[in-house]
Amino acid sequence: MGQTLQTEHSEQIDIKALQDMYRKFVMECPSGLLFLHEFKRFFGVDPTGEASDYAENMFRAFDKNGDNTIDFLEFVAALNLVFRGDLEHKLRWSFKVYDKDGNGFVDRDELRAIIDSIYRIKKGSRTDSSSCQLSVDEAVDRLLQAVDSDGDGHINMEEFIRGAQQDPWVLNMLKLDMNPAGWVMEQRRRSAHF
Prior knowledge:
Blueprint lengths: L3 E3 L5 E3 H14 L4 E2 L1 H7 L8 H12 L7 E2 H13 L2 H12 L6 E3 H17 L11 H12 L6 E3 H10 L1 H7 L5 H11 L4
Helix pairs in contact: 3-5, 3-6, 5-8, 6-7, 8-9
């Protein structure tokens, strides 16, 4: 009783909330598997809205075994990372979100796609628009210049983590500028009956 998981923003998710999530998971996914469209519905994401691409990338990163579904164990592991993971774990998770094709590298197109999603989400939210001063292409160029240490046009996991740890702007961008815990908590607030 009284057990809680603490996020980096001092928000708490208690055991009752996890139990509520489990009940909702079972109600939404009686098969025990969460598909992408259910994942979006679970978190109240409009399938065609600004957060749709971000949710798809998040889903793929949470789908540890790559079977295009999330079972409850993957779901719990994802929540544990989102709410309790340290910076390096969150950066590793972010890398998986960026690495859309799962080849172990983030290329210019993957970088551009996720930054474009981030910018579209920011436009649709209450965030300060001054944080998007660079265009998508300028942000991609700056990230590649700062992080791609061998200049091959691809960012591997080591470059990704090292670049984020060395430059606060890079860290802000590579952490998706919207930490997963904040995104999940916001979707949880928006979703009725949690």
